[in-house]
Structures are given as structure tokens and as C-alpha cells.
Design brief:
Number of domains: 1
Largest sheet: 9 strands, mixed
Strand order of the largest sheet: 11-10-9-12-8-1-6-7-13
Distance between the termini: 50 Å
Number of strands: 13
Radius of gyration: 21 Å
CATH superfamily: HUPs
Length: about 260
């Protein structure tokens, strides 16, 4: 069984700069980390690897520095990684991102199951995973919180539907996006870090893809345009209260009402 996991490098801080002309976040040179939801996707894949003797590959799209999250995936048990990188991919919205990733996944080779995290912390759209599946013309389910069974033909998953739980059997190949409560991600292994330190990270560029129409990628292929984007204002004010429990509890209740939290 071949499992592909889509991962992403996201800013590790809210102090980011925005390109005023394009409205795109400047990612070069900022502190970055693995998208937290993707850790659950990797852990899910590695557990299936251990149980079903599967092969786990990861793919990410980004600048050269995004290789760091592939190395982290190696330290968690992934077997193979690929970086989808090209300036023609820059500035992509969710639709162009999903299309680029679908092209990259196709270029990587055969897959039986694609796993994505529920969403990314720098976008919060939860759209890229399902859109990848639509471009690949395969079935998909979102908000998976448990895998009941998987075999050569299908996978049985339990989905969190907010007010209900749904169990569904999906034919392979397919794509799933996973919730945080599906598992507890393992820590990166120092032993695997040493073992995979010289493992190659192949790169896929625009020229390697089957579709070479530049209007399908990056800003050119993005039907949505950002009018304005900015980091949230930081609230650094603080107050120190003194008094007995009755006085402090009333003051806290009044403050919550003032801030319209209750």
C-alpha cells in the first residue's frame, strides 16, 4: 500500500510581513514550523505503515526552506519526501495550491491513500484536501477522527459531523483529512534523524509537471484575490487585581461582560 501525506511549512510566529502589491505573505527568512494538523496526518500514515507494511511518502509545496518539514517527517517515520517548488507556484490561493499539489502527487507515482491534516494554521480554509481529491477525480472524506478498517479495496472511517458521527466505507484510492483527536503524534526520533540525515529530497518544478499551462498555477491560476491582509493586533495590556474571592469573582464577571465574552 502506498500512502501519500500532504504537509506544509507555516509561520511559527504572528509577526509576518505582507507583500503590499500581491497581498501574499512573505515566507522567506521567517521562523517556520510544521503545520500542527499535519503532524496528525503523518502519525496516522506511519501507524498504517506499521500495521499494513505500507510505504509513506510526503509532499509539500513551498520555497527551498520547506525541506525542513520533510526532514521532520523522515524523523517521524516517513520513507520518501518530495518538494514541489517553483516561483511559478508563488501566490497561489487554495484552488491553485490544490491543483499544483494534485499535479505533483501524480508526478510522484502511484498512491492508494492520500492523507491531509484538517486545515493549515495560516489559512484555516480546510479546502485544499478536498480540492486535491476533486482534481485527481477520487473520492474523499473530511473530519476523520478514527480509522476502523483498511484493506486492499477500501477504508472504513469515522467522521466528526459536529452534531453526529458518521461511519463510511470509501473505495481506494481516496483522500481523507484527519482531525486532531485521531491520534497522538510521536516526537521526532533522534535515531531516525541520524539514519535519514543524508536521505535525498527530490524536487519537482514546473517543468516536471504534465500540465505546463502557466495560467493554472500561482497568482495566474488563482480566481480569488486578496484585497487586504494583516496580522491580528497584539494586545499587551494587563491589569493586576487585589481583594478577597468575592470581590475578585465579581470583578472578573463584570470584565467578561464588558468584553462581551458572556
Amino acid at each position: 500500500m502506498n500512502i501519500t501525506v500532504c504537509i506544509k511549512q507555516v509561520p511559527g510566529t504572528s509577526e509576518v510581513e505582507i507583500d503590499e502589491k500581491t497581498g501574499v505573505m512573505k515566507r522567506d527568512g521567517i521562523d517556520s514550523k510544521m503545520n500542527p494538523y499535519d503532524l496528525y496526518a503523518i502519525e496516522t500514515a506511519v501507524r498504517l505503515k506499521e500495521d499494513k507494511n505500507a510505504k509513506v511518502s510526503v509532499i509539500t509545496m513551498g520555497p527551498p526552506q520547506a525541506e525542513a518539514v520533510i526532514k521532520e517527517a523522515y524523523m517521524m517515520g516517513a520513507d520518501h519526501g518530495c518538494l514541489l517548488t517553483d516561483r511559478k507556484f508563488a501566490g497561489a490561493d487554495v484552488l491553485a495550491t490544490a491543483y499544483s499539489l494534485s499535479q505533483g502527487i501524480t508526478q510522484m507515482g502511484e498512491y492508494d491513500l492520500i492523507i491531509c491534516g484538517k486545515m493549515t494554521t495560516d489559512g484555516d480554509t480546510a479546502q485544499v484536501g478536498p480540492e486535491i481529491a476533486e482534481y485527481l477525480n477520487i473520492p474523499h472524506v473530511s473530519n476523520v477522527r478514527k480509522i476502523h478498517e483498511i484493506n486492499e479495496r477500501s477504508i472504513v472511517v469515522e467522521m466528526n459531523m459536529a452534531e453526529s458521527v458518521e461511519i463510511q466505507e470509501v473505495l481506494l484510492p481516496c483522500l481523507i483529512t484527519v482531525e486532531k483527536d485521531i491520534c497522538q503524534p510521536r516526537l521526532p526520533s533522534f535515531k531516525l534523524k541520524m539514519k535519514t540525515s543524508d536521505r535525498a529530497i527530490p524536487r519537482i518544478t514546473f517543468n516536471d509537471l504534465a500540465d505546463k499551462n502557466v495560467m493554472h498555477y500561482g497568482l495566474n491560476g488563482s480566481p480569488t484575490q486578496v484585497l487586504k491582509i494583516f496580522p491580528p493586533p497584539a494586545n499587551t495590556t494587563n491589569e493586576k487585581w487585589e481583594g478577597d474571592s468575592d470581590k475578585l469573582s465579581k470583578k472578573l464577571a463584570d470584565k467578561l461582560h464588558e468584553l462581551k465574552y458572556v
